[in-house]
Amino acid sequence: MAFFDCHFFSESLGVSASMHVILPQPTTGQIGMESRAVKEKHPTLYLLHGLSDDHTIWMRRTSIERYASEYGLAVVMPAVNRSFYTDMAHGYKYWTFISEELPALARSFFPLSEEREDTFAAGLSMGGYGAIKLALSCPDQFAAGASLSGAVDVVSLVYKRDAVEFGNMFGDLDQIKGSRNDLFHLAEELVRLEGPRPKLYQCCGTEDFLYEDNVRFREHCRAKNLELTYEEEPGTHEWGYWDRKIQSVLNWLPIR
């Protein structure tokens, strides 16, 4: 695998932005790494960080580079700060950045596939919310979305956290339910539309503070007959769990 620390200007944010990118490299001589044969343009996973982290965290806390090498998968890890992957009411347009500008820029910089069938999103905690939001909001762009211990019920979450900070992100907190920032609403909207539906993956530790929220979202998706793979096991909100489960996500992805 090749690793890139990439810094660039974002038109949608109006500031310089950062991402880490790992790309498949065909090699037989690298000790301890397995590399699948690669295409001209790589299948791509957009791997999203949580509320307190940045674009470096997946490389620092897991062996994502080693895991991805077995699948011939490129991984793009952007920084979005404490934005909850939204066009913030008082802040920057991070939803526009992550859903529109970032994929276009990444494909202009690197040999990444433009095909929906080769494009996936995953993330942990806040990033799990962002990944499912991408899959549900942009089903014509993403074939799959995976949430690890995701903040999937943002309506419930905002009343447990700092109301001022979440107000800066979302605006009027009473208006989140039924909006484009509500994953439950996005799931309902998706089933009303004709067209492709993304595969969804969801996991959460049974001792995680977000466990009950994840159970509610699981039941909602099942009621809507969405294609959801759900896994749970003992675990809390920590990197040992996420390092294990990202391997499950990579094995689950519908990589062609």
From TrEMBL:
SUPFAM superfamilies noted in UniProt: alpha/beta-Hydrolases (SSF53474)
InterPro entries for the chain: AB_hydrolase_fold, Esterase-like, Mycobacterial_A85_antigen
GO molecular function: acyltransferase activity, transferring groups other than amino-acyl groups
Pfam family of the protein (one): Esterase
Top-level lineage group: Bacteria
Protein name (database record): Esterase family protein
Organism: Paenibacillus foliorum
